[in-house]
Amino acid sequence: MGKSSLFNRILGRRAAVVSDREGVTRDRHYQTATYKGREFTVVDTGGFLPDDTIDVLAANVRDQIFTAIQEADLVLFMVDARVGITKLDDQFARMIRKLDKQCLLIANKSEVPEDRAESWEFFSLGMGQPRTISALTGYACLSLLDEVISLLPKKGQSDKEEKRPIRFAILGRPNAGKSTLLNRLMGEERVVVSDIPGTTRDSIDCTFTVDGEKFVVTDTAGLRKKAKVEDEVEIFSNMRTEESIRRSDLSILMIDATLGISEQDFRIIQSIRQAGKGLIILLNKWDILPDKTEKSFDHMVKAMREREPLFEFTPILSISAKEGLRVHRILQEIKTVYANCRRVIGRERIAEVFAEACQKNPHPAHQGRLVKLTRACQIMVEPPVIDIETKTPDAVDESYKRYLLKTFFEAFHLNGAPLRLNFDTKL
Ligand code: GDP
What we know:
Layout: H1 3-12, E1 17-24, E2 29-35, E3 38-44, H2 59-71, E4 75-80, H3 87-99, E5 103-108, H4 113-117, E6 131-132, H5 141-151, E7 166-172, H6 178-187, E8 194-197, E9 204-210, E10 213-217, H7 221-224, H8 229-235, H9 238-246, E11 250-256, H10 263-274, E12 278-284, H11 296-307, E13 316-318, H12 328-341, H13 347-360, E14 373-380, E15 385-390, H14 398-412, E16 420-424
Parallel strand pairs: 4-5, 5-6, 7-10, 7-11, 11-12, 12-13, 15-16
Antiparallel strand pairs: 1-2, 2-3, 8-9, 9-10, 14-15
Helix pairs in contact: 13-14
Guanosine-5'-diphosphate binds at residues 172, 174-180, 223, 226, 284-285, 287-288, 320-322.
């Protein structure tokens, strides 16, 4: 592919003065380079992909790449201009986009002008304009390096400090208390409010900062200014809800505790899950719940879990948006769920938990035949997806899937995250 050539070109030629620093970790190669007086660390994961021999991400590679991307301020994503987009490129592009990192798309092997002309095809990866270079001949490598250092954060302003805001939607039936909650969240003294236009016509996103953490509430048009009753039909129409879910990292579903959870709520939950987004459930109007006792909350949650077992791993809070009861816990919960959605679980940790789960409770035989699950590996974040290898994916029992989900939720602290399991013949 040419990753190593580029790596060497960045590190090894006149352009960059190399000093070997952190050296070599087991799977990632770190080196410090200086170019035009700027010092930066290059992390190379290139050695792990057996070039051209696979077209899906090998299990042992994903972990390293996840980690390398997360650590980096800038990702150079290299594709082969002569080959065009491969399935693997697609997978990488998705992963990088999810991790929301600054990225330059590099179409390598572009020494021949005709190949450069073809590079427009890479636009479809959704990573912007491809930079055509040739690591081999050095074509356009210096201008790439110039661009790289211009994009790297100056000392002391790493992009880790410039965290992107957590985006969430407040959903629920009319009168559940969504506007009241929004106003309360925005009305806090510490909060700085600004309205920014969303993507849908007349949708408004609100931004606020609490204790240095930035939040965006998506599509608040109908919530800020109390809409007239007839408008609500439109405002909470399915399309609008879907759009709001899609543009958020997670959703808060508000339920009027005095009325209980409705079919419409379940439909919203379904949409949130399908979109692969985080979920927090709020039981609102706790202040006016009739016949309230210490056990009311447990009873209500238990009934909800009986109907939907996955609620066991969904944060549920009883609050009063009007009185402010436990409202301060909501933002904390949002931060936790957001982190859970982005969690990268170490390869060895997954292997360990998976092996233990299979040993403790092996998969029952299917039509007299053994169902063997051989390996588990995380392939995605946001949503977290764990692939499980088995020769017989169709024979995997539904209740066994739930057992594994439960095990993973508990072991990896994924509450609120839409963890998915895939069963596949090959990882
Ligand atoms: P939305 O349609 O979901 O935005 O609901 P609103 O925020 O407009 O609330 C509908 C009604 O419920 C209003 O009269 C609110 O004052 C009331 N309300 C909202 N939250 C609470 C709460 O926690 N307790 C009580 N008692 N009333 C609430």
